[in-house]
Amino acid sequence: MGKHGRHDSGYRNSYGRRDGRDPRMTGGPADYDAPPRLPRKLPVAVVLVGLVLWSLLAWVGYVLVDPILGWVAASAGLLVDGGKDIAAATGGKEVGTILDNLNVSGFLGQIIALLRVVLKPAIVIVWAIGTLALIAAPVILQKISRLLAARRH
Description:
- By secondary structure, this protein is mainly alpha-helical.
- The chain has helices spanning 29-33, 41-89, 93-102, 104-152.
- It has one domain (42-152).
- The model has no long low-confidence stretch (mean pLDDT 76).
């Protein structure tokens, strides 16, 4: 009656081994240190989502340049006039005459006109640089990970 089962201390699992190790973990140290590989489709999907979001952000910025600069131009004139009135009310009439002599509103108008000319092409250039960076990111990250893996050993 006493010989029905095994009398060893181990147990059998679904891998057919007596200990709890997975057969994939029986190799040498190189098997343990191998980084997990990502599926190839994941970086492409991440890059595509990044490109869509980056393009959406650039498009919103491009569309909003004119309304924002129009608001700034309208507000700048009001701010300069309000500053002159406040200076005159507090007894600083010299400040009002200095602002008139400097033609601050004309200077602000020139800066806003310059920004209108420069901002839209700058947005397109920054968008193009960001797009190239997003497209090149998987290759660059793969090279960086190889470099870091080589440093570990």
